[in-house]
Amino acid sequence: NAGVTQTPKFRVLKTGQSMTLLCAQDMNHEYMYWYRQDPGMGLRLIHYSVGEGTTAKGEVPDGYNVSRLKKQNFLLGLESAAPSQTSVYFCASRLTGVTEAFFGQGTRLTVV
Amino acid sequence: AQSVTQLDSHVSVSEGTPVLLRCNYSSSYSPSLFWYVQHPNKGLQLLLKYTSAATLVKGINGFEAEFKKSETSFHLTKPSAHMSDAAEYFCVVSDRGRNAGNMLTFGGGTRLMVKP
Predict the structure, then answer these.
(1) How many Cβ pairs closer than 8 A exist between chain A and B?
(2) Of A42, A50, A105, which is closest to B43 when you measure between CB atoms?
(3) Residue A59 and residue A45: Cα distance in Å, rounded?
(4) Which residues have C-beta within 8 Å of that of residue B69, sequence separation ≥ 6?
(5) How would you classify the pairing of strands B10-14 and B110-115?
(6) Lowest-pLDDT range, A26-35, A38-47, B35-44, B99-108?
(7) Given an 8 Å threshold on Cβ–Cβ distance, is A90 in contact with B96?
(8) d(CA A56, nearest CA chain B) in Å
(9) Which of A28, A75, A105, B61 is most buried as measured by Cβ atoms within 10 A of its Cβ?
(10) What is the mean pLDDT of residues B4-31?
(11) CA A103 to chain centroid
C-alpha cells in the first residue's frame, strides 16, 4: 500500500520555467491538498480539492494552478517559477472532511 | 474561520522529564484537531486525533492530548521525554460542519529539543 506518493522528490528550476508536481493516492480518498512549508511558517495551504473535478483556493494560491481530473491524482502547476516559490511542497489526502490526513514525503523545489 | 496558535516555537527538555507543547485554536464550528510530528527531512506522521469522542486522546509513542473547549486548547503531553522525540510538532485544526470548507489549518510548529 503506497499511500500518498509525490513526484518528483527534488527539482531545480530556473526563473520563468514551468513544471508540474504530481500527487497520487491509492486510498480512494475524496479530499486532497497541496501545502508549502517554509522555515518558521508551518505549512500553508495552496489549493485543495474535495472531489474529482473540483478545486478551491487556499491561503497562498497566487502563482500556482491545480487540476483533479482523476480522483487519485492531484496536480500542482507552476506556470512561471519565481525564487519566492523555493520551498518544500507536501501533498495530503483524507477520506472525509473529518478524518485525519495522510501526507506524501515532500518535494524540495529550488528556483534559481 | 479557523486558526491555530502554537504558543512556543521552541521547547527544550531533558531526557526523562515531562513534555508539554501548547496549542490554542479558533473554530467557527465543532473542530477536529490533530497533532503531527515531523522528523528532520521527513514527511508528517499523525500522533493523535480528536474528532468529538473522548476529550482525552491517546496517541502513539506515549503522547496524549486533552481537548478543552472552554479554553479552546489542545495541548500535547508526554510523561517522559526520549531522545527520539526530538522533532517538529504541528497542531492542526479542521472545522466540521456542512459549510466548514474542509480545510486543514496548521499552527506554526514547535521544535522539541531533548537534552541527554
Answers:
(1) 54
(2) A105
(3) 5
(4) none
(5) parallel
(6) B99-108
(7) no
(8) 10
(9) A75
(10) 94
(11) 10
pLDDT at residue B100 above 80?
no
Residues 73-112 of A with CB under 8 A from B: 90, 92, 94, 97-106
d(CA A69, CA A48): 13
Using alpha carbons, select from B105, B112, B93 the residue that is nearest to residue B38.
B112
B109 shares contact with chain A (CB less than 8 Å): yes
Chain B residues in contact with A100 by the CB 8 A cut-off are 34, 46, 49
> Which range, of A1-5, A55-59, A77-81, B66-70, averages the lowest pLDDT?
A1-5
Tell me the C-alpha to C-alpha distance, in Å, between residue B32 and each of A1, B22, B37. Answer: 26, 16, 17
CB contact under 8 A, A103 and B108: no
